[in-house]
Write a structure and sequence with these properties.
35% helix; 43% strand; 4-stranded antiparallel β-sheet
Amino acid sequence: MTRHLSDTRCAEGRVRFLIENGRALLLAEGPGWNHKSYHPTLERAALHLALLPEVSQTLYESALAELERQNRLP
């Protein structure tokens, strides 16, 4: 079962955080690139997102803000 945690879109691309089979799934894409990786925790997935050279600062900050906002909702 897959649980969708956040979906961030801006001019530079799109980032999604999901939970699938107990692991964090990071999906990121933009013009001419895409990325998919599994991580043991959301924190590790967020760290990995920061290390992707294609991800702009704007997209990274927006994705983390959205993830944080979604995790605060009941």
